[in-house]
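Posted in: Structural Biology > Protein-Ligand Complexes

Title: Requesting predicted complex, zinc ion in pocket

I'd be grateful if someone could produce the 3D structure tokens for the following input. Sequence and ligand are given below.
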Amino acid sequence: MHLNAHAFAGAAIYATAARLDPASAPVMGAAAIAAFGSHFVLDKVGEPRWSRAQHTLFDGAFMALFAALVAASWQDYGKFMLLGALLANIPDIWDKKFYLSILDPERWPAFDDFFCHRKGYESIKPTASVTVLLSVLLYAGTLVVVVA
Ligand SMILES: [Zn+2]
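-- Reply #1 --
Done. Output follows.
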């Protein structure tokens, strides 16, 4: 699953907890675990067969929207969204070596330390439209959490 989908899911989870009770360690701790755990759920959904440029454009466009939302809501939930997004992307940050393995897989080959990155873990191969729709829905969910 793409960087942006993980970021939106983690941000929505962690910002929801911040809306409930940001001073509660159990609430924020459970949200941190849920944000991290969302990675393994979303990685069940694979990625369409796009070129590297298409993947980069897709992630770049949606992450620009995410950055705008984080900046716009920084005073209230922006920092929680950012932390949730980071938590939800930890397995990819590690296994993809801070995404260097995507830029140049020959020079920086990816790890498969997290089980969700091993062959056979994905069980859904989405089309391009389903991939975009999923990101739109996750972004909308994040928007609802911080704006509503
Ligand atoms: Zn992953």
